[in-house]
Write a structure and sequence with these properties.
Structural class: mainly beta
Number of strands: 7
Distance between the termini: 13 Å
Number of helices: 0
Strand content: over 45%
Shape: globular
Order of helices and strands: EEEEEEE
Length: 75
């Protein structure tokens, strides 16, 4: 299931284009809206647990461990 999200801050994301290719670094701009599939989970950091998600874009690329504080749901 895809969800419409909007990024609330500019940031740099590393996209997985293919398992055989290097990560592709892209700039994500505040206000960008996209449909994504989400796989949420918690990662432990020095500051404590942080809620993140792997974002699966419609074009087949994936951005891993994107903090929930960087986007919100539009739906």
């Amino acid at each position: 299931m895809y969800h419409l999200i909007e990024f609330i801050a500019d940031f740099i994301a590393d996209l997985e284009v293919s398992p055989r290719q290097s990560l592709e670094r892209v700039r994500v701009r505040k206000g960008t809206r996209v449909f994504v599939g989400l796989c949420p989970y918690i990662v432990e950091t020095v500051s404590g647990p942080v809620e993140v998600a792997d974002l699966y874009f419609e074009d087949g690329t994936v951005a891993r461990q994107v903090c929930f504080e960087r986007f919100h749901f539009v739906e």
